[in-house]
């Protein structure tokens, strides 16, 4: 693997990452919500993600893309697109009281993902502070009982999603949630059954929270089931950390940046993932909510070209 500093000119010497399947997601088009006037229409997203050279997409927030599988299959197929995963948000640390509500949300997403031929369901823990307003919703640390709820119910979720929908859950460490830092990610992994629960390693969120993606892959490689490729701007990150800025406003300030201008370097991450010798999706997610409608396409095209220069 050539270093990122070598740039696209070194593309011919970069080894093919044969086990890595690259894609993108609505998130890279500024889509965070099922319906929001600041977001691009779903047809434009599908047109532009295909135009950027990607073959794989995620469903994004449930309801943004059509939820009728027949409609969505037709729309994706005629653009040469396939679906890798759906995404759900959960607050399982609250215990059994939230299970039924959680499962209703999961079932809708998992059913659509299954119908689209996806193999994964990305599970994001609930935020402890609001990503728009910054309002603190609950303590930023869990009690021992809440950790037990989180681990046992996530295992149950993994088991039932597999049995009912044939999907594997991959839990996504995320800023402003309780699974964020290296300490909390390791605690979560050590507390869950590897047969039921894998990790969606988001390189940007993990760096945002101080983690080292390559180290995590090398240490917990058997638990890495999925990747989100993302970078953070270290200067903006230092500022938002110092100020205690919530994640949503931090994104609006540009904390998540276009590769290869930020950290972590994605070449070494992809190389470490390839060494695991398993098939992995690596889905580009550059948080940009809100953004101008014309901004995502050229960024996506440049990012896809950059990833090709890394062998992906």
From TrEMBL:
The organism's place on the tree of life at top rank: Bacteria
UniProt-listed InterPro entries: IolE/XylAMocC-like (IPR050312), Xyl_isomerase-like_sf (IPR036237), Xyl_isomerase-like_TIM-brl (IPR013022)
Gene3D superfamilies: Divalent-metal-dependent TIM barrel enzymes (3.20.20.150)
Keywords: Isomerase
A Gene Ontology molecular function term of the record: isomerase activity
Transcription among keywords: no
The organism of origin for this protein: Streptomyces hintoniae
Residue ranges annotated for the Xylose isomerase-like TIM barrel domain, each copy included: 46-309
Protein name stated in the entry: Sugar phosphate isomerase/epimerase
SUPFAM superfamilies the UniProt entry points to: Xylose isomerase-like
One Pfam family recorded for the sequence: AP_endonuc_2
């Amino acid at each position: 693997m050539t270093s990122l500093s070598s740039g696209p000119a070194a593309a011919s010497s970069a080894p093919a990452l044969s086990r890595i399947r690259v894609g993108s997601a609505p998130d890279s088009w500024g889509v965070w919500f099922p319906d929001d006037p600041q977001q691009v229409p779903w047809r434009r997203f599908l047109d532009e993600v295909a135009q950027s050279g990607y073959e794989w997409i995620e469903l994004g927030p449930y309801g943004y893309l059509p939820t009728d599988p027949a409609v969505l299959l037709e729309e994706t197929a005629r653009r040469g697109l396939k679906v890798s995963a759906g995404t759900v948000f959960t607050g399982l640390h609250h215990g059994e009281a939230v299970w039924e509500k959680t499962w209703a949300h999961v079932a809708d997403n998992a059913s659509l993902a299954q119908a689209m031929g996806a193999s994964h369901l990305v599970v994001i823990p609930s935020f402890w502070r609001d990503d728009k307003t910054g309002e603190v919703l609950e303590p930023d640390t869990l009690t021992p009982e809440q950790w037990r709820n989180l681990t046992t119910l996530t295992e149950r979720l993994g088991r039932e999603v597999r049995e009912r929908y044939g999907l594997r859950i991959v839990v996504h460490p995320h800023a402003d949630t309780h699974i964020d830092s290296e300490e909390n990610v390791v605690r979560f992994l050590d507390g869950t059954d590897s047969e039921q629960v894998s990790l969606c390693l988001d390189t940007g969120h993990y760096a945002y929270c101080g983690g080292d993606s390559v180290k995590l892959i090398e240490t917990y490689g058997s638990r890495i089931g999925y990747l989100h490729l993302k970078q953070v701007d270290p200067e903006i990150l230092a500022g938002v950390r110092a100020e205690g800025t919530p994640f949503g406003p931090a994104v609006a300030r540009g904390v998540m940046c276009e590769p290869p201008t930020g950290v972590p370097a994605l070449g070494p991450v992809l190389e470490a993932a390839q060494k695991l010798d398993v098939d992995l999706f690596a889905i580009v997610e550059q948080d940009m909510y809100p953004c101008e409608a014309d901004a995502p396409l050229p960024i996506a095209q440049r990012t896809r070209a950059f990833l090709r220069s890394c062998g992906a």
